[in-house]
């Protein structure tokens, strides 16, 4: 049983499309509640997190957030943080973080998340694991009862030499089908920040009683798989923002 708290957000949102307003509200509401001065913060990746960076920038510039340390989960987030004038660090200097805040592609009723739509899942999971608390910020399109209702696949980061065998073995062992994520027809596969490829595993829908933890463990133990976009049992709270303007913190 989850607790739902209505929360407020001071996000200014003139001229934004409804879905962008929701992303911004979720990001600002989470930042307002869980980022304090002195915080060592893991900063996730994606369009929702971009609003979190906006929130951090405002707080840092107006002096409300002092002495924060930001550890990004991707090259792009690092660029956003640098452009915003925020203090950027890494896990070498700060191996223990207070909080990590990230988006998700889908979150089910048990807080199992699919992440990696942007291809940053391995670093996201490393930074999340280094943090004491993990909060997910998401718009209403990510809220699902059963994984797969909202996002069709589990992204899996793989070492390039293992990609062709894995494209065959994952569907053989787990069902569904797999595709190597392509950048463009001319450029070939997407290459992650770590120099790896992404396989999108389209799992079979409507399979009742699926054990996502067992699937995650099997995949993580497969040679050549670096990490999967399944985040299980690590979320402290989810901030969902809805189209009616409300934000709910679900814990
Ligand atoms: C990137 C991620 C993102 O958190 C996820 O794709 C959500 O992105 P957005 O906020 O743009 O919807 O996991 O790898």
Automatic annotation (TrEMBL):
Catalysed conversion reaction: aldehydo-D-ribose 5-phosphate = D-ribulose 5-phosphate
EC number: 5.3.1.6
Matches recorded under Pfam families: Rib_5-P_isom_A (PF06026)
Associated pathway: Carbohydrate degradation; pentose phosphate pathway; D-ribose 5-phosphate from D-ribulose 5-phosphate (non-oxidative stage): step 1/1
Keywords for the protein's UniProt record, in alphabetical order: Isomerase
Keyword Isomerase: yes
GO biological process: D-ribose metabolic process; pentose-phosphate shunt, non-oxidative branch
Protein's UniProt keywords contain Isomerase: yes
One GO CC term, this protein: cytoplasm
Gene Ontology MF term list: ribose-5-phosphate isomerase activity
Sequence similarity: Belongs to the ribose 5-phosphate isomerase family.
Record protein name field: ribose-5-phosphate isomerase
Species of the source: Caenorhabditis nigoni
């Amino acid at each position: 049983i989850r607790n739902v708290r209505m929360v407020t957000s001071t996000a200014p949102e003139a001229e934004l499309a409804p879905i962008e307003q929701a992303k911004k509200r979720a990001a600002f509401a989470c930042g307002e509640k869980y980022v304090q001065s002195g915080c060592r913060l893991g900063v996730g990746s994606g369009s929702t997190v971009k609003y979190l960076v906006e929130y951090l920038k405002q707080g840092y510039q107006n002096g409300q957030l002092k002495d924060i340390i930001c550890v990004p989960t991707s090259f792009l987030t690092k660029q956003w943080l640098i452009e915003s004038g925020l203090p950027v660090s890494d896990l070498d200097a700060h191996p223990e973080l207070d909080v990590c805040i990230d988006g998700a592609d889908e979150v089910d009723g048990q807080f199992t998340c699919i992440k990696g739509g942007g291809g940053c899942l391995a670093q996201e999971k490393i930074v999340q694991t280094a943090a004491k608390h993990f909060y997910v910020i998401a718009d209403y399109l990510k809220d699902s009862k059963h994984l797969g209702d909202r996002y069709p696949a589990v992204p899996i980061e793989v070492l390039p030499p293992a990609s062709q065998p894995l494209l065959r073995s994952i569907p053989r062992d787990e069902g569904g089908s797999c595709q190597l994520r392509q950048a463009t027809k001319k450029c070939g596969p997407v290459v992650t920040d770590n120099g790896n490829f992404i396989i999108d595993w389209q799992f079979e829908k409507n399979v009742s009683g699926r054990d996502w933890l067992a699937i995650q463990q099997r995949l993580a133990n497969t040679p050549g798989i670096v990490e999967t976009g399944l985040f299980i049992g690590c979320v402290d709270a989810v901030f969902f923002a809805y189209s009616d303007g409300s934000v709910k913190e679900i814990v």
